[in-house]
Amino acid sequence: MTFKTRRSLLALPLALPFALALPRAFAHGEQHGKAAGPVVKEQKPWGIAGEPARARRTVDIRMSDDMKMVPNHLEVREGETLRIRAINAGNVLHEIVIGTGDELRAHAEMMKKFPKMEHDEPYMAHVAAGQQGEIVWTFNRPGNFEFACLIAGHFEAGMRGTIRVTPKA
User: Fold this and answer.
1) Contacts for 130 with CB less than 8 Å, ≥ 6 apart
2) Does a structural domain hold residue 52?
3) CA–centroid distance for 112 within its chain
4) What confidence tier does 1 reach under pLDDT thresholds 50, 70, 90?
């Protein structure tokens, strides 16, 4: 065994996790869904992942192939944990992603460049045709936020809505 071969074999355990992660990182399609395991709770400007047991209200958002989301506006009270049930009434994959307008626009641009990219965050629901998914989110920051389908072309076609989070007092 040469030094070069030995060095390559030693590097294999370090490179293997990255190589195995590549197909998942760049595959956006019917395999979307919540990963098994605990939800990572990361504070975002629009809130944090919520506990399902704390959701006192459920809002159904219907997504269709005419690139509409109904309703396209939500009113939420600061501190409220909301269950958003995303219902795909269309024949193609749709998704709902919550965020700021700037973040959603940037993500939509990235989706144009990498349309098969897979992502799975607690503020996203990816829903196959005829199926439904959900987001449980605690809106712990007041402000104006948005939700949208960021699949290439859907955002640009107007598949989005707004969320107004009013202060507690």
Assistant:
1) 88, 89, 91
2) yes
3) 16
4) low
Rounded to the nearest 5 degrees, what angle is found at the Cα of 138, between the Cα atoms of 159 and 57? 80
Taken in order 40, 115, 109, 68, is the CA torsion positive or negative?
negative
Task: Identify the CATH number of the domain in which residue 83 sits.
Answer: 2.60.40.420
Q: Which of 83, 85, 87 has its CA nearest to residue 57?
A: 83
CB 42 within 8 A of CB 48: yes
Give a yes or no: residue 6 inside a domain: no
> Quick check: is 57 in a domain?
yes
The H-assigned helical ranges of the chain are 3-25, 101-113
Taking the C-alpha atoms of residue 117 and residue 88, their distance in angstroms, rounded to an integer, is: 20
For the chain, the domain total comes to 1
3-state secondary structure of 29: coil
Q: Tokens 């439904």 sit at which residue?
A: 132
pLDDT, averaged across the chain = 83
Nearest 5°: the CA angle 124, 117, 55 is 10
Predicted TM-score (pTM) of the model is: 0.77
Domain around 102 = 44-166
